[in-house]
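Severity: low
Component: inverse-folding endpoint
Summary: output formatting inconsistent between runs
Steps to reproduce: submit the following structure tokens with default settings.
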């Protein structure tokens, strides 16, 4: 297994989508498969789809995490790429599920909150279009809450 040193967050720059669609888009660019390891859906599968709460925040597998991703040039070898479906707006459910998922990955790989970065913090891009310092602060608050809960129950 490769060593994971960071988690990189992205957005799809589309109002809808699935891992299968992104795989198709990436193959259309000449890639061998989807570049992201995970995709967090927003409840819209297509431009004409009606919002489906069951799909909001649903985390789909993309490229096998054991394989090097193709999501941020120069940083793929030691990172996991997660793409949130959306352009400039994202759902609360999407963010909550993403935070819980990222927290589980931090635990699994022994990483720190500062190891969670946005694509734009590693390359000249506006991706993702949400506030990464605020996202990390929310992760920190979630961690503090988990610690308080476990201390109360022990």
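Observed output (run 2 of 3):
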């Amino acid at each position: 297994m490769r060593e994971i040193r960071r988690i990189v967050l992205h957005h799809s720059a589309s109002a809808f989508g699935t891992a299968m669609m992104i795989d198709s888009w990436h193959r259309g660019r000449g890639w061998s498969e989807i570049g992201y390891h995970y995709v967090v859906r927003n409840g819209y599968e297509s431009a004409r789809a009606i919002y489906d709460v069951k799909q909001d925040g649903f985390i789909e597998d993309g490229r096998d995490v054991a394989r090097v991703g193709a999501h941020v040039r120069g940083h793929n070898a030691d990172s996991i790429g997660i793409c949130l479906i959306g352009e400039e707006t994202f759902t609360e459910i999407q963010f909550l599920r993403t935070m819980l998922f990222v927290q589980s990955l931090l635990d699994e790989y022994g990483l720190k909150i500062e190891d969670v970065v946005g694509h734009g913090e590693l390359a000249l891009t506006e991706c993702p279009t949400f506030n990464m310092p605020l996202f990390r602060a929310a992760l920190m608050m979630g961690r503090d809450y988990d610690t308080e809960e476990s201390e109360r129950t022990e």
